[in-house]
User: What shape does this take?
Amino acid sequence: MVHQGTGAVGARLRRRVVAGFCALATLSLAAPGWAQSETPTLRITTGGPTGTYFALANEIMSILPDDVPFEVVPSDGSVHNLRRLLAFEGSDEQEYFQLALVQADVLAQLRDRARDNSVLQGIVDRIKVVMPLYVEEIHAYALKSEDLRSMDEILSKNLRINAGKEKSGTNLTTRWLFEQLVSDDARLDIVNVNPEPGLPILGIAYGVLFDVAGAPNDRGRAITPESDITLVPIDVQALYDLPDSPYVRTVITPEQYTWLERDVETMGVQALLVTFDYDERNPYCQQIERMTRAIIDSLPLLKDPATGAHPAWTEVNPLEGSQRGDLYKCSGRVLQGN
Assistant: This one.
């Protein structure tokens, strides 16, 4: 199959982004729920309770001073997190979140959609990056016996693809990957099954499971050399060619998962800690600045394997985000050494 060019990708992005985001065009942002006499609590929306986002958020909470109250709330993933950040989860969830952990490609697609709607663009432009974190690798689990070496082979064998739960970043990423290879949705056999933690169950309900998560992770660790499971290489050139592409080339290695028989080339997407563009006079700005400073000061501790912190911290480099155009001003001065 021939990969489509960036023109086709750009056109598709304007037509296809998470359906729920379209309703944000009429959103009027609600006031935060705190009294001016109180110390505001920073609430962060993460991913599931067994995921890397949730673990990192709890480790952030553990290093904060007592006068920076912090609450960690699990979620369905990146799409859910952005909807929460923008206070758009409907009547069932009238809660306010000041921080969210998201995949860079999910944010990129939302921003692309916003270009066609001035109201939505005005809202989305106020999503700012507190700091970039680490690269999440795209894991595509399949049976060794299928001997799959590419996404094209997944399609040629008509295997059912599990993209994970609907509000997850994995779901959006998986669909975006395959949309570059297939122009007709009827040829895609994708299901949205929320897989249980641990060993992927392949071969019955679906033949390939996609999971966007930092390597190594708990699901990958649950696999043994005796299991008939491996990883499929993932590579979509058209997505690297996008302006300011959120994707990078990366490799998952046998050092990360002992059951792998060789290096597996795949795509990675950066995890971002984001917030809303609170004014510098807003107490949330001050709390986010203090949180950022605490993270930077604690990085040597978080990167030390002896402390038992999540290994994803070893990839965090604050200087990478210090010159971003979408950097939040209240964390930016900390990243820039002020």
Summary: Confidence is low (pLDDT under 50) at residues 1-31.
